[in-house]
Specification:
homodimer, about 300 residues, mainly alpha, Farnesyl Diphosphate Synthase, two-stranded antiparallel ribbon, 2 strands, about 70% helix, globular
Chain lengths: ~300, ~300
């Protein structure tokens, strides 16, 4: 990424971090009755890459948006964190570490983690509707965002992906199954993130679709690189034990294709992502983001 | 309840049952990739009283609504079922039976139950926004419903109630604490249910408030009677082991007040509920429902 775009990117991340840290909905005292909210905040502030809200902010700018939509962009991180908290739980992946820190259930107990995930799954809808009731976005926009977000994370989206992940553990699966699983588990929410930005900017439906296509391809590339890093990364780079997919008999792109072919496939998806938007004025950052994500080491 | 109102009530329940059974969002084949949806349907069809959607339908009619809003009314049962599925889980109440049948995690495993609860927490927002996008309700109405539902079930509503329940287990609490816990855990969603009906009918804000007040009082009475039945009910009437609150060191109105005083308090809440609406033409069914709930044996 160019120095200039890297600055924009890190400003976006800083903005989202600040919004999350200061979110009025998550204000809490040290009172024990606040521990669910404290756990939500802990999960949110554990150092994510903020890719989803950044996609929202950048597509918003790409399609001409000029307002501060950071609170709505943060909703995408809330949903992502909800899925991570529940995914890490003992009955799911049973991961006690996440990004180098104890995962939420390890830090707060499984009961609080369950409720914290639930709270973060509902809060985005509270925030989106509050923005509409306060006149910051139109009710039509709020309905579209609500629809995109609930579909992307629900039974036919992210939850379906987690389900496919569960049922395929220890089974032989083919590349098409992996693509479907990844599209659901990771892709849908990335698509919604890009669509959020485009919708908030009032983009045409065909441009919303382009944003979604970019994100779908980015998501595939992202997941493939994740799988590769689980094999070749180091624990300190990843913040979690490497080889954890293998230990749990997870099917990964790295397994099914081998490292080299998996990496080639990731590059092809990155190229397809870039192809969707490269002719748009101002799309350099998003193009570079796609290229950088395929080269990342963590 | 008069014979005539009993007929209306059971027609409402039958309508909601039929909507839930035929909900397109929950169509599933026997494919294993559908087991989350199958688990959601199992939880939904385990024989609930459908009080929440009935409140929605009846307040809608009370304030002059004439359309079929049953799909939106069913959303309240979806959220209620989500909370029951997660509440029953091993890390929460660890109840392996619910309404005389294995609870969702006992029947499908804790991983699927976790995802099924998640799916049911998101689906209502998909349904509400789809109804708005299809022009069946206005976007303004959809935003209000989304706001009421997410607030009622979120961090400051139902989830806060579950949190208070967890932290108070085995502790000495007073009657004010129990009232707050019950208001959050049960009351908020009942209030949203009544508000849904009023909002969908286009009622004035003061009438939405009356509907909510009725439901808040009904909720307190309902919870107190629940606590009493856990002491004096029979297992076959309740469909779950009696005395389960005692075994888990739960604080209940029956414990803190004794059976007789708890029953008196329930009756006072019922009277307050009725007082909110009894001067409204056509409110007999809702008045009788409140009286009947305090007399119920299951």
């Amino acid at each position: 990424m160019t120095e200039q775009n890297l600055k924009v990117f890190s400003d976006d991340v800083a903005l989202i971090n600040s919004v999350i840290e200061n979110l009025g909905y998550l204000k809490c005292t040290s009172d024990r009755s606040n521990s669910v909210i404290a756990a939500e905040k802990y999960g949110l502030c554990a150092g994510g890459k903020r890719i989803r809200p950044v996609l929202c902010l950048e597509f918003y700018k790409l399609f001409g948006g000029k307002e501060d939509i950071s609170e709505i962009a943060a909703c995408l991180e809330l949903i992502h964190t909800f899925s991570l908290i529940h995914d890490d739980m003992p009955e799911m992946d049973n991961d006690s570490m996440r990004r180098g820190k104890p995962s939420v259930h390890a830090a707060y107990g499984a009961d609080i983690a369950l409720l914290a995930g639930d709270g973060l799954s509902l809060l985005p809808f509270e925030i989106i509707s509050a923005n509409a009731l306060a006149g910051k976005i139109s009710c039509e926009t709020a309905v579209k965002l609500t629809s995109y977000l609930s579909c992307a994370s629900g039974n036919m989206g992210m939850i379906m992906g987690q389900m496919l992940d569960i049922i395929s553990e220890g089974q032989d699966v083919d590349i098409e199954f992996l693509k479907e699983m990844s599209a659901k588990k990771t892709g849908c929410l990335l698509m919604a993130s890009a669509a959020f930005g485009a919708i908030l900017a009032g983009a045409e439906q065909c441009d919303v679709k382009r944003a979604e296509e970019y994100a779908a391809n980015l998501g595939m590339s992202f997941q493939i690189v994740d799988d590769i890093l689980d094999v070749i990364g180091t624990e300190s780079e990843l913040g979690k034990p490497i080889g954890s997919d293998k230990i749990r008999n997870k099917n990964t792109f790295a397994d099914v294709l081998g490292i080299d072919k998996a990496y080639e496939l990731a590059q092809r998806y990155t190229e397809s992502a870039v192809a969707q938007i490269k002719d748009l004025n101002g799309s350099q950052l998003l193009c570079e983001l796609a290229s950088d994500l395929v080269k990342r080491r963590m």
